[in-house]
Amino acid sequence: MNWIALEAKTKEAGLTNEEVAKRLSINQVTYYRKKRGFSDFYREEIRIIADLLDLSSEEVNRIFFTD
Fold first, then answer.
1. Angle, alpha carbons 59-9-40 (nearest 5°)
2. What is the pTM of this model?
3. Contact at 8 Å (CB) between 13 and 59?
4. What was the pLDDT predicted at 34?
5. CA-CA distance, 8 to 13, in Å (whole number)?
6. CB 9 within 8 Å of CB 53
7. Residue 2 DSSP symbol
8. 51: burial class by Cβ within 10 Å (0-12, 13-18, 19+)?
9. For 4-57, what is the HEC assignment?
């Protein structure tokens, strides 16, 4: 999980972490834990984030599937 890249893309899209968490229907603490790698994002959550931030397949892989 590359949380720094996710944070950068979120800011680039003009969104806050609160707004992303709301779109995922999770609370901010849960989003923070997932973003920081303490727990995993579900496949559907990744899809929603990819759509929300207009991420390419390469960006999705770089953000969510790297250590």
1. 65
2. 0.94
3. no
4. 97
5. 9
6. yes
7. -
8. exposed
9. HHHHHHHHHCCCCHHHHHHHHCCCHHHHHHHHCCCCCCCHHHHHHHHHHHCCCH
Query: What digits encode the pLDDT tens for the residues 29-55?
Result: 999 999 999 999 999 999 999 999 999
Predicted local distance difference test score (pLDDT) of residue 66 = 82
Q: Phi first, then psi: give them for residue 19, nearest 5 degrees.
A: -65, -40
Helix (H) or strand (E) run with residue 58 in it? helix 57-64
Q: Please tell me the distance from the alpha carbon of residue 28 to that of residue 34, in angstroms, as a whole number.
A: 10
